[in-house]
Amino acid sequence: MTNPFQTNQLTRRQALWFATGAIANVGLHACTRSSTPSASTADNSASLNALSLGITTWIGYTPLYIAQAKGFFKDLGLDLKLQVFETVAAGFPAFLAGKLNGLAPVSSEAVALAAQGGDFKIVVVEDTSVGADVIMARNSIASIQDFKGKKIGTELGGIGHFFVLQILAEAGLSEKDVTLINTPPDAAAAAFQKGDLEIAYSYSPFSDQALKAQKDGRIIYSSKQMPNAIADLYVFSTAFIQSNPKAVAAFVEGHFKGAEFLKANPKEGLAIMSKQLNVTPDELAQQLQGIQIPDLATNIKMLGNLNSEGSLLKPMGNLATFLKSQGKIPIAPEMSKFIDSQVVTALSTKA
Fold it and tell me: Domain total for the chain?
């Protein structure tokens, strides 16, 4: 079985979330303790709760793959199957048809899915961007206002596109004031490095490499300045949550066990995920500095009190309103209907 992470590193942020293309031609990968299940594992699989999840390639899945490698999910009675897509949006049809129980969308994709009539709940905040997403600009460009009339490299329809639009709006500009060049994050960074683009959206490690080589440029804006604007989520269909609450609870607990293991055993945890991504542990450690993996207590705050400062609702509600105003989605869904803290709250009580 080929490793889906070896050909396209970090492609999750290159997703065209509104795409309606065919589902990527990838296999269904069962989470097991090893590549070849033991006889006892095979014999006991029928007694486990089954759960299928659609994902793509992203460093934020580090706790997930640690939990897989360490057998945490199986120990919790869960038979987790991962289906890897080129983009999360490619998994929308399967999810909406009930062929997948859950997805791992970025916040804009979750809003788009809700706008398409998806019936799901956000049960865990997987990670938030705290500097991983950046806008690079030449040193001669003093402020965002100076973007007017200039070309900006970003993949149209991807999370970077909407990050750029939000940044422009903060500065009193709109998409009409600039020329957006459809460029994936890796290519955008390369073009910025070569001097072909004055402004580009990208993320680590591509942005790091570009700025190291190109001295006429710096980060003019990063996701540190827009808290919770870019978050990766685990969502499950409402019907599946209602019919298989133990499976969802086991998944959530396994995720946090993976995150705790990474914190307590960074060397082993990084080694597990770096093999999946085909990078070195040091490279992965550097990339992980650009995201934050919220612990259980933080998840309860983000998903529980929807009126609190750190709630997920406000940034997602703002994103829904913004995308509707930009004509990117047909309606601005009421995102409070899609946020559910019951699983994380129950886990805290169990702990």
Answer: 2
